[in-house]
Amino acid sequence: AQLVETGGGLVQPGGSLRLSCVASEFTFKDYAMTWIRQAPGKGREWVSTIYSNSGNTYYGDSVKGRFVISRDNAKNTVYLQMNDLKPGDTAVYYCAAAVDWTYTVPPSSLEEDAYDYWGQGTQVTVSS
Question: How far apart are the first and last CA of the chain?
């Protein structure tokens, strides 16, 4: 089972990117999906979560109003639309999966072993 993130890259401040995370070999619809990021030299930061059963979405304060999380259970994919990007958004972005009914936000842990599945990450760089 795995998660594969794509869509990262270099973008100017104020620009947009859409990240995708494709799941395979597990029952995607049973899992809440979360985006977590880690900037160079800093700790991990919770970005956003979307539940499967309710469809409810939640965001960290630093991205609220700029990022939108969504999912397509038919495609086993979760997305993160990132708008009005700032240099402070520069980080490696990871997607992670946890059983839907067990997951709470804000998350109690941002460590890999707290999640059932964890992707390899995609780099987002915001710079002029």
Answer: 37
Residue 12, judged by CB atoms within 10 A of its CB (0-12, 13-18, 19+), counts as exposed
Residue 52 corresponds to which amino acid? S
Taking only the tens place, the pLDDT of each residue in 115-125 is 999 999 999 99
Whether 125 contacts 90, CB under 8 Å: yes
Neighbouring-strand partners of residue 56: none
Partners of 67 in beta bridges: 82
CB 90 within 8 A of CB 26: no
Give the residue from 73, 10, 57, 63 showing the smallest Cα distance to 37: 63
Two tokens, residue 103 = 């997951």
**What integer pLDDT is reported at residue 101 of this predicted model?**
86
Name residues whose C-beta falls within 8 Å of residue 70's C-beta, 6 or more positions apart in sequence.
Answer: 50, 57, 78, 79, 81
